[in-house]
Each structure stands twice: as structure tokens, then as C-alpha cells.
Amino acid sequence: MNARRLIPTAAVAGAAALGMVALSACSPSDAADGGKDGRLDIVASFYPMEFLARQIGGDHVSVSGLTKPGVEPHDLEITPQQTGELNEADIVLYLKGLQPAVDDAVAQAETGTKIDAATLTDLEKHGGEDGHEEEAGGEAEGGEHDHDHGDEGSADPHVWLDPVKYAEVAEGVGKALEKADPDNAAAYKKNTGELVGKLNALDKEFQEGLKNTTTRTFITTHSAFGYLAERYGLEQAGIAGVDPESEPSPARVRELQEIAEEDKVTTVFFETLASDRTAKTLAEDTGLETDVLDPLEGITDQSAGDDYFEVMRSNLTALEKALGAK
Fold first, then answer.
1. 3-state SS of the chain?
2. pTM as predicted
3. pLDDT tens profile 252-297
4. Structural domains in the chain plus CATH codes
């Protein structure tokens, strides 16, 4: 596992200025003059982007989401109405690489400002054909085996599940809003600082809660937790890849059974927006328990909380129980 990286106080302060945020030819004043009731009209691709826009924008923005509650973000198809919303928005906030339909629609949209969250932090590759976790620049460090299986050759987009990386994205979004709407820059800066502070606190909770455990390995249907696992020295063993609907091969199922026995795994995690059939079958075959580990791609009535922080703390509680936190 790589050494845990602390949240930088100003690591992404110049992200927008360095060209990491895609801006159109329109001026900041043009964007600030649009929107509803004088507010910036922001279209966000899915829940983690909506949450950032609302937390940082506050009363100065009007936010709508492309992915409705209960819809699996990876499978989203853009409607003609949503295409119109993208063209009329002052700002589009999305995460390239997660939703192909959104990527295509944003590329064609005539939106004033396009903010790609994937440019605001370093994306990494989680998983290779040999089962060892890799970063974008190389193989995993250390001698421990790593069971994570992601999509070989593609960067993992699930950065919001690591509070440190999510804070980096928040910093970049805040800078972009300041540039798009200079009249309210002070408010965006203040809101960003408060959000980053909360994410720092959440990071510390995860550090303390997962510091001493009986096992460091967890099995999950959806390989969305590579960044979280790396951050806190855990090992993610994914039944499926980054796509939650993909089915594991018989060989992979046998491998997971071996991992469960070898690493004293107690729980197979599933999520609310994807089928739990494979997870429950594996749990029955291996005598393991099941529980929910939410990838936070959307908030529904089945979510263990009303917002990002509540659900992340529920995830922490579930991991502490499954891993035997002391």
C-alpha cells in the first residue's frame, strides 16, 4: 500500500488558473449574469458533483442533476431535455470517465463553463490482470498481496470515496466558481474552506476507526473503493470491476473464496443501486455475512443517511464491524 497522503492546504489552489478546468470563450461576467433569479445555473452529472455544487455555491447557485435518485450513474442515457439543460446552463460540473453518455453530451454542449472534476486530482489505476493494485505510474508498493480487480488500463473515477481526494476536487471547484462569478468569490472561498475542513475531520475519523483491525481485507460487489482502501491501508477484493453490473468468472469466484479464508474475511458487501444476487450467493457459499457498503453514487430512501457525510460515516461503521476494529 502507498503511504497515506495528507490533504494539502493549497495543493490545488491554482488548478483552475493552470488550465485544469475547461472554460469557454465567454467572460466570467457573462456566466454570472445568467441562471435563475440571478444565480449561477449549474448542471451536475451525478450526486457527488451535485453535493459539491450545493455546498460550495450556497445561495448563489441553482443546481440540477442529470442522474436522478435511484438511477445507476454508469448506465445513464441523456434525454433531449437534458441536452437542452446542458446547453442552457452557466456551468456543467461532471467527472469524465464515469458516465460515457455524459462525457459525449458535455463535449457537444455549448455551456459557458465546463468543470471536469477528473482534472482536479490525480486519478489512479486500481487493479491489473494479475490482481495487483496499480497506480497510474506503476505497480503497488510493498510486498503484500493485493486483491483489487478494476478495469485494466483505465483510471478509477471513484475519487469522492476518499475524503482527501474529494477535498482536492472541492478546492478546484471552488476556484472555478470564483473565476466564473467574481462578485461572489468571497462566499465561494469561505464555503470551500468549511467543506474542506469537514472532509479533513472525516479523514481523521476513518484513520482512527480503521487503524487497528483483525483483517485488512473486504469483499465488495462493486470495485469502487480502491482509493478508500489505499488511503487507509486496506485491501479491496471486488466481485465485479468498476462496472457494478459485470459478472465475475467462475475462476474469480473461486479466488474470492480463497481470499475470504486466507484473510479471515467476515463480510461480503453489496450496494443499494445494483443487484445483490452475486454477493449473497458468494456469502452463502462461504458462510459469510452480508452488509451494505454504499459507493455514494446517489441518495435514495434506502441510503443510510441523507447526505455524503452521513452515508460515509455509515460506511465507516460497516467497515469497522466487518474488519474487526479494536
1. CCCCCCCCCCCCCCCCCCCCCEECCCCHHHHHCCCCCCCEEEEECCHHHHHHHHHHHHHHEEEEECCCCCCCHHHCCCCHHHHHHHHHCCEEEECCCCCHHHHHHHHHCCCCEEEEHHHCCCCECCCCCCCCCEECCEECCCCCCCCCCCCCCCCECCHHHCHHHHHHHHHHHHHHHHHHCHHHHHHHHHHHHHHHHHHHHHHHHHHHHCCCECCCEEEECCCCCHHHHHHCCCEEEECCCCCCCCCCCHHHHHHHHHHHHHCCCCEEEECCCCCCHHHHHHHHHHCCEEEECCCCCCCCCCCCCCCHHHHHHHHHHHHHHHHCEC
2. 0.81
3. 878 888 898 899 999 989 887 666 677 777 777 778 888 999 999 9
4. 22-123+165-204 (3.40.50.1980), 210-323 (3.40.50.1980)
* Tens of pLDDT, residues 47-88: 999 999 999 999 999 999 999 988 889 889 999 999 999 999
